[in-house]
Amino acid sequence: MPNQTKIDRVAELKAQIEGASALLLTEYRGLTVSEITELRRSLRELDTRLAVVKNTLMQRAVTDAGVEELTALLIGPSAVAFVDGDPVAAAKQIKASAKLYPSLVLKGGFMDGRVLSADEANSLADLESREVMLSKIAGLLKGEMSRAASMLVTIQSKFLATLEAYKEKLPSEEVDQPQEEQERPAVEAEQVVDEVQEQEVGQAPAEDAAAEEEAVADEDPATEGEA
């Protein structure tokens, strides 16, 4: 019956499996302690933790985590890289370390819900890292933004040129408009004078007729006798 220490270790490994973005399994047979320490340090810089584990405990942990397919890879002295960062960068580092330490072997891994064979894990190291891809994407976006900005400048220049050409035509078309506006008040003034004169002409006969009636009344004898 397993003791509490082993139970706690299995639970810890299970949590690390479920929390990692990827697992990379290696065989470290023949590596010295200093070489393993150096490999751990280089992987830690990539948000990856390398743990030397007993196969029996790791087999129980992967079974509890629902990825028992990994048990086939847990043969011989095993060190598991729990990747929290970029799996490609971690695989590149392990492959580069394998060139320095030929006894280091990348046996396979687990990523995106599937088990990786040794060939697939090594092919992962040949891909471009996330930083490189992001850099390329940023370069493409920068190029697209530069082209868009260039197009906007060209459109603005064409618009300004069109506007200037239109403004050059405006003076000749606007010269007549002020003259018409200047002549309009004069015409309106003449109309007002004509209306006033017509009103005066209409009032004058009426006033003359009233004056004549008053004069005739003063000269009428019948009117004087009655007085």
Report what the structure shows.
The structure is a single chain. The chain is an alpha+beta fold and 227 residues long. The chain has 3 domains: 4-127, Ribosomal protein L10, N-terminal RNA-binding domain (Alpha-Beta Plaits, 2-Layer Sandwich); 129-174; 179-214. The protein contains 8 helices and 5 strands; from the N terminus they run αβαβαβαββαααα. The protein has a 5-stranded antiparallel beta sheet.
Compose a concise summary of this entry.
By secondary structure, the chain is α+β, with helices and mostly antiparallel strands. The chain is built from eight helices and five strands. 68% of the residues lie in helices and 12% in strands.
The name of the CATH topology of the largest domain is Alpha-Beta Plaits
Shape: elongated
Percent of residues in beta strands?
Answer: 5-15%
Based on CA atoms alone, the radius of gyration comes out at 52 Å
Named CATH architecture of the largest domain = 2-Layer Sandwich
Distance between the termini: 158 Å
What ranges have pLDDT less than 50 throughout 5 or more consecutive residues?
221-227
Percent helix among the residues?
55-70%
Summing up helix and strand content along with how strands pair, one would put the structural category as alpha+beta
Assigned CATH superfamily of the largest domain: Ribosomal protein L10, N-terminal RNA-binding domain
The SSE order reads HEHEHEHEEHHHH
Q: Write down the domain tally.
A: 3
Helix tally equals 8
Strands ordered across the widest β-sheet: 2-3-1-4-5
Total DSSP E strands: 5
Mean pLDDT over all positions: 76
Q: Look at the structure and give the CATH class of the largest domain.
A: Alpha Beta
Largest sheet: 5 strands, antiparallel
